[in-house]
Each structure stands twice: as structure tokens, then as C-alpha cells.
Amino acid sequence: MSERSLISLAVVESRRRRQPALAPDDRRAALIAATIPLLHEHGTEVSTRQIAHAAGVAEGTIFGVFDNKTQLVVCSMVQALDPQPTLDAIAAIDPAADLRARLTQAAEIVHARFAENAHLMHAARKLIFTSDAHPEAAKQMALTRGDLLAAVTVLIEPDAARLRIPAAKAARLLMLHCGASTFGPFGGDEAFSGDELASLLLDGILQSHTGEQVTC
């Protein structure tokens, strides 16, 4: 056997080792898992070569299960922005805690999600919501926002009778503030405080007549 043949066999064997046979759905899942960290690092400019290298496959393998790079990036964004870990964290807040404590924890959880994924959310808004090319992804992202709002609303509702506004509106205000402090032009570098946001929502910005906070 010639040296060239030996080299070719070695290359084939190497590819076999790094590219195990997977069902299409499993291959898609593996490529998405490899793409998500690269999106955090490189944004949507990540190349298919980088993705293939991270996944341990040939670059052409990507196009065996995705129509193009954009489709892979969109699917990866939707997966990366899966709200379930955030929903689980909100659901784990002690319902027996007072309203102020519950709001403080919820604000910290929601803000952490926004801060961690700010660049992906910006990219998703540009790539998914500004065109009609990805209707299913846009629908999924809209459902995500609704699920987060509903989770915070449920957290507030036990004390709804004590509020001047509906629990859903209070939840929306919390979400808006967390979003603005992350994405807005006035967010700045100041550390976010869930306690301050809870106080703003519950107490406003005026001193009470006694100069004391109202306990909620």
C-alpha cells in the first residue's frame, strides 16, 4: 500500500472518530449546542468553519441538516434564549415571603437574564423581528416574553388587592425597568439592585409622611 493510501486511510479514520453517525435531529441538536457559545463570543458573524470546528464535523455537514448558516443561527438563538431556567428560578421564589422580598428576587433574576443575553437579544431583534423570513422563531420569541410576564404576574397576584394597579401591569413595569437598565441608553455601568427596583415599584420616589418605607 502506498504512502498516499495510508495517509488517506488515516484521514478517513480521523473523520470517523470525530464525526460519529447521528440521526438528523441529533445532528441538528449537536450543531446548535456547539453554536450557542460561539454566538456569545462572536455574535451572528460566527462562521460555519468555526461552528464545524467546535462541533468536530466537516463544514459541509452543517448543510446536510440546515438550509444555510442563518437558519442554524436563528435556531441557536431561540435555544439560547429558552426562558425555562428563568421561569424555574422565578417559580422557586418562596411564595410565603413578603411581597417586597419576592419582587426583589424576581427583579434580580430577570435582570440577570437580560444582562447575560443582551447581545443575543439585540441580534434576535434585528435578525428575527425585522423581517418575515423566520415566522416560527418570531412566534417563539413572543411566547417567551409572554411566559416571563406571566411568571412575574403570578408571583405578584397574592398581594394584588394591596396594589393600586393590576398585578399584570406591575409585572410589566418590573420587566420594562429591567430591560431598560440593560438595553436602554441610560442604563449606565451602575450595579443593578433588585431591592431598589422593588422599592421604586412599591414606594415610589416620594418620602412618606413619617419618612419611613411602607412594609409590604
Automatic annotation (TrEMBL):
It comes from the Bacteria. Residues 25-84 form the HTH tetR-type domain. Pfam families: TetR_N. SUPFAM superfamilies: Homeodomain-like. Residues 47-66 bind DNA. Keywords: DNA-binding, Transcription, Transcription regulation. The keyword Transcription regulation applies. The keyword DNA-binding applies. This is HTH tetR-type domain-containing protein. It comes from Actinoplanes palleronii.
